[in-house]
Amino acid sequence: MVDATELSYIIALPKVELHVHLETSLRLRRLLQRRDPDHPLIGQVHLISDPSRFAGYDRLRRLRYAERANRLPDSAYTRANIAAITAELVAEAPGQSVRHIEVRVGGQRAFSVLGVRGMLEAMAEGSGEARRLGLSYGTIVTVIRERGPEEADRIIAEAVAASDCAVVGVDLAGDEENYPAGLFSAPIARARDAGLGITVHAGEFAGPAGVWAAVYQLGASRIGHGIRAIEDPALLERLCERGVALEICPTSNVRLGLVSAMSTHPVGTFLKQGVPVTINSDDPMLLGTTLSRELACITRAHRLSREILVNLQVTAARAAFLPAKKRESLERTIRLKT
Fold it and tell me: Which of 279, 336, 252 lies closest to 60, judged by CA?
């Protein structure tokens, strides 16, 4: 168990969060409940199948559905509400000593109700809270594989045009087994050519081939999860050579049944082999976690030293979708405060 002194150190350690989702409907539900517990928009949650009966990507779908089975109406998706939940997510960061945060959004309903531009403008408004709190912020626009390359191209084109809305990157997520990375080469190239960072969910529900494709076909500099890369020693060497960072989300991996326990998570092996690793909370509301909790869990399970904990944050600073000078400044801040 991590003792109180070590936990205090972890909480106070300056951090960088690169893989966290806005979780639009969950945060909207909480916002509405707080304003009015009897709000007619909230309704009653329906009975559904137990997510633990499923595995992999199907479990993720069920887990998310369990939290939002009584679908919120379109009227809940207002610019004011989106700005409010973005501001709330950002306001949670200082409690974890987060100095830079990149927030992902890719909800089909929010994009369809507000439009991509409207959604990004609302998030940009809410993220103004970051400046007041003294941390840097960026939005990553997620496109979903199952919705096809045409929709991905449309969304990315609008994201590129929204450079004034703190958009720093594009993420490809979804069913990696049935929708290979190569299908999305053209839309991702549009984002890359516009100077946006590229991260790809890969090596999570499918094997190492998806990570290879994300790096070589899409030019990804970061991989969301990437835990299946452990199966291919040549891939690990290549990730080290190219400095491709893995966005590891330990609790998410355990809850989805992708690893059996925190103690068997491949993060320890990645670190020993020099693979660039970052630690992230993924879906904090859905998983009931925080960035500090994630770091405490892997510290306990893999007996990480304070030096390694600092290096994890330095790696994240170097992998952030920020201009070089800002990345260097962020790294200095981490080193000076530890």
Answer: 252
What is the value of pTM for the model shown?
0.92
Check: CB of residue 23 under 8 Å from CB of residue 251.
Answer: no
204 is catalytic: yes
- Third-level CATH fold of 4-336: TIM Barrel (3.20.20)
Partners of residue 170 on adjacent β-strands: 141, 198
Q: Is 144 left (phi over 0), alpha (psi -120 to 50) or beta?
A: beta
Dig out the tokens for 96 from the structure: 């974890």
Domain regions of the chain by residue span: 4-336
Q: At what angle do helices 148-161 and 185-193 cross, to 10 degrees?
A: 10
CA distance 167 to 194: 11
Cβ burial of 44 (10 Å; 0-12, 13-18, 19+) is: exposed
Taking only the tens of pLDDT, the chain with its 338 residues reads 577 678 899 999 999 999 999 988 789 988 988 888 776 655 544 333 444 555 555 555 555 544 444 467 888 899 999 999 999 999 999 999 999 999 999 978 889 999 999 999 999 999 999 989 999 999 999 999 999 999 999 999 999 999 999 999 999 999 999 999 999 999 999 999 999 999 999 999 999 999 999 999 999 999 999 999 999 999 999 999 999 999 999 999 998 889 999 999 999 999 999 999 999 999 998 889 999 999 999 999 999 999 999 999 999 999 999 999 999 999 999 998 66
Of residues 204, 247, 294, 331, which has the active-site annotation? 204
